[in-house]
Every structure is written in structure tokens, then in C-alpha cells.
Amino acid sequence: MAAHTLRMFLLIVHLPLVGGLAVDTISGDRVQFPETEQCRERGATLQHTLTGGSSQTVARLEDVWKPAAGYKDRMSPNESVVLNRTNINDQGLYGLTCGSEQEKRIHLNVITSSEKSVPEGQAAGFGFHYFTAGGLGRYRVERNTQLVFELDLSSGSTSQGSGFENRTSVAPHWRSDGDLTLTLQGVKPEDRGDYFLYILKDRKRGHLQAVRMRVSPALNTPEERNREQITCPPPATMREYNTTNIDYKMQLMETS
Ligand SMILES: *[C@@H]1O[C@H](CO)[C@@H](O)[C@H](O)[C@H]1NC(C)=O
Ligand SMILES: *[C@@H]1O[C@H](CO)[C@@H](O)[C@H](O)[C@H]1NC(C)=O
Ligand SMILES: *[C@@H]1O[C@H](CO)[C@@H](O)[C@H](O)[C@H]1NC(C)=O
Ligand SMILES: *[C@@H]1O[C@H](CO)[C@@H](O)[C@H](O)[C@H]1NC(C)=O
Description:
Blueprint: H1 2-12, E1 21-26, E2 31-32, E3 45-49, E4 55-61, E5 65-67, E6 82-83, E7 92-97, E8 104-111, E9 113-119, E10 124-126, E11 138-143, E12 146-152, E13 158-160, E14 168-170, H2 174-177, E15 182-184, E16 193-201, E17 204-216, H3 222-226, E18 239-242, H4 248-255
Parallel strand pairs: 1-8, 9-17
Antiparallel strand pairs: 1-18, 2-6, 3-4, 3-7, 4-5, 7-8, 10-15, 11-12, 11-16, 12-13, 14-15, 16-17
Bound molecules: 2-acetamido-2-deoxy-beta-D-glucopyranose (4 copies).
The site of one 2-acetamido-2-deoxy-beta-D-glucopyranose has 2 residues, from loops.
């Protein structure tokens, strides 16, 4: 549904240089390149633009998408381009050439995440520090692309995402010491997932940080409270963005 809307949008609007799709993935996760599933033109290619301007073929469409040399150990022939075990060198700009259609650009952002495991019912803290004295921009926290918390650094007004109402806060002294560590009270099993924390300023995301949070069973006794929790990691996630509003190219430079 979202992908469909986005495709229509791409067709009707002239895209500026920085236009295209941006995809966030956490390093080590697999990523599916958007639009590749819809392309059915034999000979279509997906290319990665390397630093310096040259490009390298990632996959080519025959009857199915086939990995190019250098990607065979991380990609299986498939109806869409899915790259397993992403790493930081996969980051950057990709071009999808499909028949006579205009080349589509995809910005892949590979983010290194930290992991935390929080017992159900306890509070989780997501560390974040930023220069707040200037009072510019907005501090945002998202979970699996949905808003968790937002703080307008100039007005100080906050908003909380659905399901997170009255559970999120930053310390009241954030303006003087720049400590934007987010506290999430009463962690529930459904809170597990990938949290992205960033500053949105001049339509660019900056200082992006990712935390993969797992939720372990509730603690019953003080002894259990001291014991290390062991849980399975959550499934990999992929995020797609509308880049009309946000300059990801700049953002990639800011966070790399
Ligand atoms: C992308 O953003 C533009 C500008 O805000 C908006 O008009 C368009 O509907 C958005 N597209 C999608 C798929 O959200
Ligand atoms: C990529 O990952 C998928 C799903 O785990 C797996 O089925 C496939 O064999 C992997 N391909 C390669 C080449 O590692
Ligand atoms: C093949 O692509 C589909 C989506 O088009 C994806 O769900 C599936 O995991 C992919 N399989 C492999 C082995 O990469
Ligand atoms: C949040 O707190 C306000 C004020 O105490 C209350 O009116 C509202 O119902 C609460 N919302 C939720 C979802 O708990």
C-alpha cells in the first residue's frame, strides 16, 4: 500500500537531485531493494555508485534477479533484489535501470545499532546527547518507523506516539545539559523492536542512532532482577522513507 503510493508519487512528481527512496537497515540485517520486485524488464540492472563516481553492478534481471560477481555469497536469485548480511560498505546510492524508464535512485543507509534487553515492566533508557543550547530542530525517536516521542528543541513542546502516551520522557534539565536520554516506562513485550533516535533540522536527519531492544520476561524476585536475561533477537526490519522532505544524501554524510 505504502509502496504503491510511493510509486505513483515517483511518476507524477519531478524528482530533484536528491530525490528517490531512502532505505534504512541495521548492519547485519538483510535488505530488500524497493522497486526491484515491480521491474520485469529483462536486462534491468541495479548498480551501486562507489565513492569517486564509478559504479558496480549488484544484480541483473534475467528471468529472475541474479547477483553480480561479488554479491553471490549474500544474494540468492529471486524475484526481487534481497541482500543478506548488509555491512557498512553497502551504504550509499543505488541506481535501478528498468527498460526505458528513468533511472530510480535508492539511498541505502546502513546503521550500526546497539542492543539492549529490558525486563517487562521495567523502564528502558535510550541514551542520547545533543547540543541543545542553540535550541534548533526537533529530537525524534521512532520505533519500526512509527513515532515514539518528539521534542521541539525551540518551544520545548513534546508529542508521544500511539501506544507510548504518558510513558516517555526526557529529564527536565535537557535544555541546560543536552541530555536527551529517553526514558520509556513500563516496557511491554510489544515495545520490542528497532528504535531510531535523531535530530531533524533543516529537513535533514542528523546524529542518527539505532537501538535494537528486546523485552525479557518480567522480574519476580530480587534474585531474578540481578540475573542476566536471555532472549531471541527480533526479526529484521526494513524502513522506507519519502525523501521529498528530507535530504538523505546530506544525512548520510552527517552520520557516516
Ligand atoms: C511524500 O512527501 C510529499 C511532500 O510532503 C507528499 O506530497 C507525498 O504525498 C509524500 N508521499 C508519500 C508516499 O508519503
Ligand atoms: C539469504 O537469506 C535467505 C533467508 O535467510 C536464505 O534463504 C538465502 O539462502 C540466503 N542467500 C545467500 C546467498 O546467502
Ligand atoms: C525473495 O524475495 C522475496 C520478496 O520479493 C523475499 O520475501 C524473500 O525472502 C526472498 N528470498 C530470498 C531467498 O532472498
Ligand atoms: C495520559 O495522561 C492524561 C493525563 O493524566 C490522561 O488524561 C490520559 O488518559 C492518559 N493517556 C493514556 C493513554 O494513558
